[in-house]
Specification:
By secondary structure, this protein is α+β, with helices and mostly antiparallel strands. It has 27 helices and 17 strands. Helix content is 50%, strand content 10%. Helix 10 runs antiparallel to helix 11, helix 13 runs antiparallel to helix 14 and helix 16 packs antiparallel against helix 17.
Length: 755
């Protein structure tokens, strides 16, 4: 018992010591250090190493820290947060110093970066020249199209080959004996195509071609490159700065009217005046090239695979040849040496930076005066600026520059053609028809076998009113190309203008039936139908209907060609419907004054009444005495009828009608006027009866026939078909007054071109 009692205080003492050690351990963890009283003696013994250096302190986490001066425990003097703050402050002050004291030249840095980008672009272009597929010396978007198509076909062949390799190494199918498996594998080996696919054939190096050593690269990189530029399409929308003369009137004479111009892409291609035909061509989707069908299984016959590979390769070659034929060669040796500068200037032009582009091309012309492409580019910029600024002076400068580009030595044939064609078109636009004719004649002399250029030359003769010269040109074209539809319709038109009605019909009909570009024109439908009517052929209205369906005519009856859409259309009108009741009342109240002045002119100077020159009469005599035409007085015509002119001056809807006339019309007995239509729907025509013998004088408009009365006004829309008979015993005299269509706005009346 005593022994047990003495052991109990010992146990309690041990437990008290353990609790005290636990408390010391907690204090140690909280303070991160040790108790000086507990380790004092040990520390004194081990504070120094044998060599006198401070000994590293062993921390609880097992890491050692070198003790430094003034650091009793060997821990870090500064925290991580402090160092981060120091670094941040140094960065801020450095940035402020750089900015404030302008230590870094940012402009120089940016310039060097730009220079590196341009140099890299040139290097890359040089590398990609290995993929030039059309032989023009560079890699551009057309080359990329061909290569991408080849890659697509090559991918199909690679899929076939991969499937064959899988078949060679395939496992034996369930239920298949080892003998069958060996037999199948043997068949697969023997069925391997003998003809190499495009991917199996090793690429042959091109002789004398750029980058021949690099043609084995597998994946082409097709960047956009504007190295060769097709001449501008003159049919692009733009503002015109003056009316373009030279249109052929429906009656066979030349009048001023805007006409679409020809494209420069193909010499034999022509734009027509048909809105419908232009939209149809624009909306016609391109033919899709046949693509190889994807491989869906391993059982496709070997012959089919070979045929597919051969077709793919053939299609790619055809596409390459087509691109080679279409792409014009505009650069000669001098141009190629400055190709990068030309490209940079051309990009400025295409982006609309015309002032900068003009400076760039002008600099190139000064530095390289023998570069045709530089002069052609300068002419294009001047052409664009003339269109933008509506400047005839700039356009004349462009015309001169086109000529200079074509005159330089070693100019490529494609650039020569493009420059002279554009020059001729711009000359026509300015009304310089003789200059345009001379330019086209030069083109024909340089390219005598180009039928399209000869057709252009014939049109230039027509625009000059030289039907004889045009006839000779088209006879030459038909001698070498007897089926040329464009030449046929124009030759038929010339024959009809010579009043060779029956001879003109087969040329007009066959030309329209050919459907060639430039033949689908309302004028040719108009004249073919008119010729058929004159020979008594009822098929005339079938051609009028076809012209209506093609969008050339508003209806079979209303066949005017120069129209404003949306105007009210009816053959006969009342004064109230026109809104010109005051004008009608004035005419009817003063009809005797107007008649007496006209009769006095007939008695004194019958020569003022000029014969009708539009070839509208079948027989008889028809004279006209014109006071106003195209909104302007005709010479001193009003001196003979001063009272009539004074009366008309009060009505600008008549005197200011730029698409009409004010005139006296006298028709002798036995006269018949063929069915015909006026050129435009922008006017209405008033007839005031002055001397009307009865009976026998009548006028038909569409299917309604009426007769004149003295002192009364008839109003009709002469864009509808109308016909006149004079079967009385004496002359018929009327006063004709054209007025603007009442639905035309004031702005339209001011801006419409005269007819």
């Amino acid at each position: 018992m005593q022994r047990c009692a003495s052991s109990q205080p010992l146990v309690e003492e041990i437990q008290a010591e353990e609790e005290e050690e636990e408390e010391e351990q907690e204090v140690f963890q909280e303070t991160g250090g040790v108790n000086e009283e507990q380790v004092g003696p040990v520390e004194e013994a081990s504070a120094q190493e044998p060599d006198g250096r401070p000994a590293p302190v062993e921390h609880k986490n097992g890491k050692r820290a070198e003790a430094g001066p003034g650091v009793a425990d060997g821990g870090p003097r500064f925290s991580m947060f402090t160092w981060l703050m120091v670094v941040a402050l140094l960065g801020v002050w450095s940035s402020v110093a750089v900015f404030y004291f302008d230590i870094v030249d940012y402009d120089r840095v940016l310039a060097r970066a730009q220079e590196f980008r341009m140099n890299f672009s040139e290097v890359l272009q040089g590398k990609l020249a290995a993929y030039d597929t059309d032989g023009d010396g560079d890699f551009d978007v057309e080359d990329a199209k061909v290569l991408l198509d080849q890659r697509r076909f090559r991918g199909s062949s690679e899929r076939i080959r991969t499937e064959e390799e899988k078949k060679r190494g395939r496992r034996r199918a369930p239920g298949e004996t080892s003998g069958e498996a060996e037999t199948n594998q043997t068949k697969e080996k023997t069925s391997k195509p003998e003809v190499e696919t495009p991917t199996q054939r090793a690429p042959e190096p091109e002789e004398d071609g750029p980058g021949a050593e690099e043609t084995s690269a597998a994946v082409p990189l097709p960047p956009l490159d504007d190295s060769h530029f097709v001449p501008d399409d003159p049919t692009e929308p733009g503002q015109r700065y003056e009316e373009e003369p030279g249109s052929i009137d429906t009656t066979g004479v030349l009048v001023e009217e805007n006409q679409p111009e020809e494209t420069e892409g193909e010499s034999g291609r022509y734009q027509t005046s048909s809105k419908l035909s232009q939209e149809a061509e624009a909306e016609k989707p391109p033919k899709a090239e046949p693509e190889p069908e994807p491989q869906t299984g391993s059982t496709r016959p070997t012959e089919s695979r070979q045929a597919a590979d051969g077709a793919a390769e053939k299609t790619a070659e055809e596409q390459k040849e087509k691109l080679k034929k279409k792409k014009p060669k505009l650069l000669n040796k001098v141009d190629k040496s400055i190709k990068s500068e030309i490209d940079a200037a051309e990009r400025l032009r295409k982006k609309g930076n015309l002032d900068l582009a003009l400076k760039a091309f002008d600099s190139l012309v000064q530095q390289h005066p023998l570069s045709p492409r530089a002069r052609y580019g300068k002419a294009q910029v001047q052409d664009d600026l003339a269109e933008k600024l509506r400047s005839n002076d700039l356009l004349q400068s462009a015309i001169s520059m086109y000529g200079e580009a074509a005159e330089l030595p070693d100019v490529t044939s494609d650039l020569l053609r493009a420059a002279l064609k554009r020059r001729a078109e711009r000359q026509q636009f300015l009304g310089r028809m003789r200059g345009s004719l001379a330019t086209l004649q030069k083109l024909v002399d340089v390219f005598p076998d180009d039928v399209g250029l000869r057709n252009d030359l014939g049109v230039a003769h027509l625009l000059l009113g030289d039907n004889k010269g045009a006839k000779k040109v088209y006879e030459e074209v038909l001698a070498v190309a007897p089926s040329n539809g464009f030449a046929k319709v124009h030759y038929g038109f010339i024959l009809k203008a010579e009043n060779k009605i029956a001879e003109s019909i087969p040329y007009l009909r066959e030309g329209l039936e050919s459907g060639e570009p430039g033949t689908d024109d309302g004028r040719f439908y108009f004249h073919l139908g008119d010729a058929l009517q004159r020979v008594g052929d009822d098929s005339a209205y079938l051609w009028y209907e076809r012209g209506h369906q093609r969008g050339h005519f508003a209806s079979v009856w209303q066949r005017s060609l120069y129209n404003v859409e949306g105007l009210k259309a009816q053959p006969w009108w009342t004064p109230q419907e026109t809104g010109y009741a005051d004008l009608v009342r004035m005419l009817e109240r003063n009809w005797k004054t107007i008649r007496d002045e006209a009769l006095a002119v007939m008695d004194r100077s019958r020569g003022r009444f000029l014969p009708e020159e539009e070839n509208l009469r079948e027989k008889g005599e028809w004279g006209q005495y014109t006071l106003w035409q195209q909104g302007k007085r005709v010479g001193n015509a009003c001196q003979g009828v001063p009272k009539t002119c004074a009366l008309m001056e009060r009505f600008p809807e008549a005197t200011g009608c730029k698409r009409g006339q004010i005139k006296f019309s006298v028709m002798q007995p036995g006269t018949h006027v063929w069915p015909h239509t006026g050129p435009t729907n922008c006017r209405l025509r008033m007839h005031l009866g002055l001397v009307i013998p009865a009976p026998g004088c009548r006028i038909r408009c569409t299917d309604q026939t009426r007769e004149w009365e003295e002192g009364k006004v008839l109003i009709f829309d002469d864009s509808f078909e109308h016909e006149v008979w004079q079967e009385a015993n004496s002359y018929r005299l009327i006063f004709i007054v054209d007025v603007w269509h009442p639905e035309l706005s004031q702005y339209q009346r001011q801006t419409l071109s005269p007819i």
